[in-house]
Amino acid sequence: MNTKKIDKTEFSYRIAKQVDIPSIIALMQASIEHNMKAFLSKQEIEAAKETMGVDQTLIDDGTYFVIETLIAEKSVMVGCGGWGKRRTLYGGNHTLGRDDSFSDPNSEPARIRAMYTHPDWTRRGIGKLLITLGEDAARDAGFKTIELGSTLPGEPLYRAMGYTEVSREVTSGANGADNHVIKMDKNL
């Protein structure tokens, strides 16, 4: 386990394990429900959920991180996210159109994937830490570029971290609401 101090708070980070999945799901659900409210309507949040969730391949590949801190001497998960070495750009196990084949680091990008921060811990550097961890690991694995599929709420963070927009896709959720995915990339 590694630690990083941000704004007087000490965070630890490590690779996610199978046993973490229930806590990851709970954190994702809280993040989606609360952190997206300033950007999306309730209907748009429901549509976005169709492409969000746990991606087992990230955990199996050892490319997914959890961020924890101590509260009353108990370790609490406050963020999760990682990077992918597979061709899938975004989504959980249930997302249609996945391509779980491996990317070629010499000619294809790695991907920043499944970034979530607990609503009580936003604006504390957790997202930046997760992106940095993912970029460093992808670079160490030989990737020269990295891309991601951003939601509207995630776009400001990714822009601040040097990502540029490649394209925007708008699909309709089962409820008819728009679901925006912004493809962004960056050189490593």
Question: Key terms for this structure?
Answer:
188 residues; 26% helix; Aminopeptidase; globular; alpha+beta; 5 helices
Helix content: 25-40%
**CATH topology descriptor:** Aminopeptidase
CATH architecture: 3-Layer(aba) Sandwich
The overall strand count is: 8
Estimated share of beta-strand residues? 25-35%
Q: Which overall shape is indicated by the principal axes computed on the Cα atoms?
A: globular
CATH-defined superfamily: Gcn5-related N-acetyltransferase (GNAT)
Largest sheet: 8 strands, mixed
Strand order of the largest sheet: 1-2-3-4-5-6-8-7
What is the element layout, followed by pairings?
Elements: E1 2-6, E2 9-15, H1 21-35, H2 42-49, H3 56-60, E3 64-71, E4 74-84, E5 110-117, H4 126-140, E6 145-150, H5 155-160, E7 164-172, E8 178-187
Parallel strand pairs: 5-6
Antiparallel strand pairs: 1-2, 2-3, 3-4, 4-5, 6-8, 7-8
Quick description:
By secondary structure, the protein is an alpha+beta fold. The chain is 26% helix and 34% strand.
Description:
The chain is an alpha+beta fold and about 190 residues long. The chain has a single domain (about 1-185), classed as Gcn5-related N-acetyltransferase (GNAT) (Aminopeptidase, 3-Layer(aba) Sandwich), CATH 3.40.630.30. The chain is about 25% helix and about 35% strand. The chain has five helices and eight strands. The chain has helices at about 20-35, 40-50, 55-60, 125-140, 155-160; strands spanning about 1-5, 10-15, 65-70, 75-85, 110-115, 145-150, 165-170, 180-185. The protein has an eight-stranded mixed beta sheet with strand order 1-2-3-4-5-6-8-7. The chain is globular and about 45 Å long. The model has no long low-confidence stretch (mean pLDDT about 95).
